[in-house]
Design a protein that fits this description.
By secondary structure, this protein is an alpha+beta fold. Helices cover 38% and strands 19% of the residues. Helix 3 crosses helix 8. The protein is globular and about 50 Å long.
Length: 227
């Protein structure tokens, strides 16, 4: 059987030769895991979240026989990603619609990940998280949310979840990252995404599918309007 070896990068303030299974924050996008990307430049930006230099740690992982949840596959919609985000991140409820929306998304779009080894999906940077909250609060439509998630290519991530996947993770090397260069790139990418979104959102999608429509009409994952 041909092996499927993928090269991934993890941006950090530290050199991490041996990532620890079970370590990390509970309230990340997909829960506890080791968050990486296939894009070295993005990893360098993520390494510089403050005024300190960082490191882009490179790894290889053999994905043969892994249980992979790829949220970019055609069988999934943006609402599957959003349900996972809601389930793991702290999501403030400000209106009755958002309260009902969180419950509806959790009951109808949440994918079980207990037996998943690796998750591939959007990374909810500050701007992405803002777009997600706007949708749940009934401020933007599904189409506007999907558009927003593609702005400035803020990034997809590869998340190592299971002990089996951690055991297959092999450290290759690291590259030092200059904060003076990459922190500004990170801020610029985020700011440009917000600017483009603000310009796009001025054209209100009056005929679009909003959170309140999804609840009232009982929209499910096979609805063509979500594709």
């Amino acid at each position: 059987m041909r092996t499927k070896v993928k090269t991934i990068w993890h941006g950090s303030e530290n050199i991490i030769e041996k990532p620890l299974y079970g370590a990390g924050k509970i309230y990340n996008d997909y829960g506890v895991g080791f968050y990486c990307t296939e894009n070295k430049e993005l990893a360098k930006e993520w390494a510089c979240s403050s005024n300190t230099d960082g490191y882009a740690n490179q790894y290889e992982i053999d994905m043969t026989d892994m249980q992979i949840l790829n949220l970019t596959d055609s069988e999934y919609t943006i609402l599957n990603w959003l349900a996972l985000l809601i389930n793991n991140r702290k999501f403030g409820v400000s209106t009755p619609v958002s309260s009902h929306g969180i419950q509806y998304l959790t009951e109808n779009f949440l994918i079980p990940i207990e037996n998943i080894d690796i998750i591939i999906g959007y990374r909810a940077d500050d701007s992405y998280f803002t777009f997600a909250k706007a949708f749940v609060n009934n401020e933007i439509s599904v189409e506007q949310l999907k558009y927003a998630m593609k702005l400035c290519k803020l990034g997809e991530q590869v998340v190592i979840k299971s002990r089996k996947a951690f055991d297959k993770l092999c450290f290759v090397q690291y590259e030092a990252v200059d904060n003076a260069e990459y922190y500004s790139k990170r801020k610029s990418r985020d700011e440009n995404a917000r600017k483009q979104y603000a310009e796009y959102a001025q054209n209100n999608d009056v005929d679009g599918l909003f959170m309140v429509d999804i609840i009232r009409k009982g929209v499910l994952n096979d609805d063509l309007r979500l594709r």
